[in-house]
Write a structure and sequence with these properties.
The structure is a single chain. By secondary structure, the protein is α+β, with helices and mostly antiparallel strands. The protein has one domain: YlxR-like (Hypothetical Cytosolic Protein, Chain: A). The chain is 29% helix and 26% strand. It is built from 3 helices and 5 strands; from the N terminus they run E-E-E-E-E-H-H-H. The N and C termini lie far apart (31 Å).
Amino acid sequence: MTKDFRRCVSCRKVALRSEFWRVVKCHPSDRIEIDSDDTFRQGRSVYLCPTTECLQLAQKKNRLGKSLKSQVSQEIYQALGFRL
């Protein structure tokens, strides 16, 4: 059985996928969404530690937008902030 490890786009920490938030650029709509535990959206995704520090750094340096190759709206960052 293999573990499913991912890397935080902000701090570069490696951990199990379940320890991160997943932000997805959905296919084929190219809409940016936050993946929840009960659904799995297909598309390009990035993982982010659920901490204030990683969220702020990702927003400041546009790490989500660069990794997803798309513009990430303020609403996505606000929704992630509410999850803290």
